[in-house]
Design goal:
The chain is α/β, with parallel strands linked by helices and 457 residues long. The protein folds into 2 domains: 214 residues, Rossmann fold; 189 residues, Rossmann fold (3-Layer(aba) Sandwich), CATH 3.40.50. 45% of the residues are buried. 43% of the residues lie in helices and 13% in strands. It comes from Micromonospora ureilytica. This is Glycosyltransferase involved in cell wall biosynthesis.
Length: 457
């Protein structure tokens, strides 16, 4: 670990707070684990409180500072009056078909993101009080880009954006609100890069692509894993269940069409089970996903919906699996978004010492990462025969499962241990702090600043 003097003073600007409930929160908590608390501050927008894993100075960006969203939310709360049976009136009768409702929500989301955000005097004062050497930001929206740039200006510090997905290429690319939000995304990215001295991507593939795209040095940092959550390399693999069933386990979200790829795996597992191969697919997902997507696995008794797991339960569940499953969608709209992404759980999978079945487009960074680790079987095409062969081989050969799991564990020790990643992470932020960039003067006013020039009032 670096000495205290080697840690730069960092101001984190993000939607997610340091905690263990979201992928971004987990990644932030692991990357900043052990950071001196007097050298770390965070301004966040999520309606949550910081977890206990990371210490520092924290401030929530109040909802009132985004007045359009704030008042729309209050209006929605006032109009959602329950009927005598306890069903909200707005949900009792829904006259809009699902696709129409989804399009309207997308339009409203873009409109809200485009709406003005006010940075009051007290917030600007708090930002300057932190005296950061560098402003680190996860971004992901027009609002967060504007807030991060404002923080960099107020603190006279270089910006380091960390990209978890290729949202700069896809956000509002479907022409929402007459295309104005998409233009704001492009303009926002230009401002972000103009104030940045360094960039970070969640995978090596993303770092190399963004380095060429934006002409800025990029480093790759994804989730990392505490040494205490690694499997014991001397511990034998967990025995199969009493009836000899091979349990394929998925832990993660079902959004971004991942449920569809899981359904394909479930169908193969079901056929193998019917032919005499004892196998089962167990899916652990967030409670909201389990409620929303439980029907998609109907008719597949070989698929079991497990309960939603807390962050602390995940490592133990992963180590008890026979095979771990990672999926991505094959549809083009999702391939573009996830092409350079590396899921939070992949380092956790590898650290568990269990073999991994990867099912998703071969060009995705997540599939390439699993292939580089030589930790399992990757099926990079939506082909039933190839998927059946991969699952069948993993189910039939215990020695293969053990060997692949150990190879993944070795790879994770080299690339994903928190204590090893932390030193490199601090080094890059320290270098970023010394790479000064030319920036326009920070805006100053007596009553606060509203992003994008709207009157603060």
């Amino acid at each position: 670990m670096p000495s205290v003097e080697e840690y730069p003073r960092v101001l984190v600007v993000s939607a997610a707070v340091f905690d263990r409930t979201t992928g971004t929160g987990i990644t932030l908590s692991n990357l900043f684990a052990g950071w001196p608390p007097d050298r770390l501050a965070q301004l966040y927008t999520e309606d949550a409180s910081p977890g206990a894993e990371v210490r520092g100075t924290f401030a929530r960006f109040a909802p009132r500072n985004a007045p359009v969203e704030y008042h729309l939310f209050r209006l929605r709360q006032r109009t959602r009056r329950p009927d005598p049976a306890g069903v909200p009136a707005a949900e009792a009768v829904d006259p809009l078909p699902g696709p129409v409702r989804a399009r309207l929500r997308a339009q409203l989301r873009a409109f809200v993101d485009l709406s003005p955000v006010r940075v009051p005097v007290d917030v600007r004062g708090w930002l300057r009080e932190q005296r950061p050497d560098v402003v680190y930001a996860t971004l992901g929206s027009i609002r967060m880009m504007r807030l991060a740039v404002t923080a960099a200006q107020e603190c006279d510090a270089p910006l380091v954006p960390h990209f978890m997905d290729d949202w700069p290429s896809t956000l509002y690319a479907n022409g929402q609100v007459l295309g104005v939000p998409r233009l704001a995304v492009l303009a926002g990215m230009r401002e972000v890069m103009r104030h940045s001295s360094y960039g970070m991507g969640i995978s090596e593939a993303m770092a190399r692509e963004f380095e060429q795209r934006y002409g800025l040095p990029f480093a790759a940092f994804g989730n990392c894993v505490s040494p205490s959550d690694f499997a014991d390399p001397d511990q034998p693999a967990s025995p199969l269940s009493a009836d000899g069933t091979v349990d394929l386990v998925y832990v993660g979200g079902l959004h971004l069409d991942r449920w569809r790829s899981l359904r394909r795996i479930g169908e193969v597992v079901q056929r193998l089970a019917q032919r005499g191969t004892p196998a089962r697919l167990t899916v652990h997902a967030p409670a909201t996903n389990l409620a929303q997507y439980d029907g998609v696995f109907a008719g597949l008794p070989a698929v079991r919906l497990g309960r939603s797991l807390s962050a602390g339960e995940v490592p133990g569940v992963l180590r008890q699996a026979d095979v771990l499953v990672h999926v991505e969608a094959f549809a083009e709209e999702f391939r573009r978004y996830t092409r350079y992404s590396l899921s939070t759980k992949i380092p956790q999978y590898l650290a568990a010492g269990r073999p991994v079945l990867g099912f998703g487009p071969a060009e995705l960074a997540s599939m390439a990462h699993l292939s580089a680790a030589d930790a399992g079987r990757v099926v990079g095409v939506d082909d039933e025969a190839a998927l059946t062969e991969a699952i069948g081989a993993l189910c039939a050969d215990a020695e293969l499962r053990d060997r692949l799991g150990r190879q993944g564990l070795t790879y994770a020790v080299r690339h994903h241990r928190t204590d090893r990643v932390a030193a490199r992470f601090a080094e890059v932020l320290r270098e970023a702090a010394h790479r000064r960039v030319a920036r326009p003067p920070a805006p100053r006013s007596g009553s606060g600043t509203t992003l994008r020039g709207v009157d603060a009032g």
